[in-house]
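Task: fold both queries, return tokens.
Query 1:
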Amino acid sequence: MSSTTNHTNNNSTNSAKRSLPEDSPTSNSSNAAKLQKEAPPAQQQLLKLSKSIFLVEPLETNLKLISDFIYKHLNKPHLEIEAKFGIIIDKETRQRIRFPTMSEVVLTEDFTSRIRFESNMTEFQHRHFNQMLNYQVEQSRSEHYKGSPITYEHLRHIDTFYQSGNGGERVRVTTDQKTQQIIPNGMIKKSRIANLNIHSPMTKLDFRISLNIETPEKPSGKGLQVRNKDRLSYTNELIKIDLTQVKSEFVKFLYSFH
């Protein structure tokens, strides 16, 4: 008896699927898809689906977390927003962190003491991004390109660091390697405000968003450290992407300020 009843119910269900009433949601969806496929281009535009049942785009949680993190500090003068590719290392294992997740994870601030961020990439990764960005620059120069222009510069700079008079912060003086002249806005004191670390398990690299204050300041005394930067710089609208190779040396200086 039980078996017969189940069999009857299954048949009823299958029958309902074959002959849905005209006002059922599934039937409406099928009809809409059919109409959209058969309609002229102008009508297809009108038949596009809404963003959601509430007519708003669903919220992307990570995007909101990052946006809120930046928004809290937007009123600060001389604010630098910097995103770096790298790897988030677990201090205990000395390996890249591993979480049971398949998507990006924004790490909480109290987890920061257990990790360190290494902003390094392999030569292969550097070459990959270089080729990808170079291709985009070439595309942007085409008369058929619909996006905004992308500019490219190959910069070779020398950063010299000096002790600041305010606490443990340092003043950075940047000079052009070829002319030996200080570049425009090349003397600044960089103060860290906050970091946000994002683990990306589906890619080879994680990333960190850093907020810093870059205040113009003239240094004093002798340089403490020299850093040579070979930088490929790509600029598009408000975004600047730098691929930088760095070599550092200590107890060397180019300028002495008094």
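Query 1 returned. Query 2:
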Amino acid sequence: MQADYLTGGSHAVGDRVAPTKITTSESFKMAILNKSQTEKQNKDYWRTSELLINDALKLLNIKSFDTDVCCSNESVKINNATCYITESDNALESNLWFLSGNPSNTSFCNPPFSKKWEFFQKAVEQVNKWKNQVLMVLPYTPVTKAWHDNIHGQNCIIYVPDGRYQYLLPNGKKSANSCNFETCLVLIVPFKCGNVIINYKRGYCD
């Protein structure tokens, strides 16, 4: 079904001006596109819930992380990290994701959603170079090509929760809805183990 002529643009035809014709379906597609782009931008700045952080620390039997490598700015660094790398510092170009002499040899990475696999490959590079560990928060999509191309063949311990975590909005408030995909914690390690999967229950630390 097409809408009548809509205002908002026109083309000259001889001495007359004919309004631009936009169909209802085109308007709908534009709205969906704008919504999708906004959601994509928001996903890049979703923050990590305290429940996920506490579960991760308990699963790894550590008290804190070395470096939070993906915080947009200092004010949103996770509380359980000694150091941080901000968006302006660009962790993808950093040569060191770890502090020397830090008793915790595990850094934390909840990457921007649109660059998750770039950060995964950078994490693998850092782990192999410095022989430390990186725990990443990633969508659990084992049947996808992207998962196969990136995760398979790497040395990772994959912690799979019993349900979805609720992420925080960029302003720190809880979202009205949980994310629409499953989440897992991927520990990239400097020793040979292939892909190891461990299932766990959220609230493990309680």
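Both queries returned. Flag for query 2: The mean pLDDT is 80.
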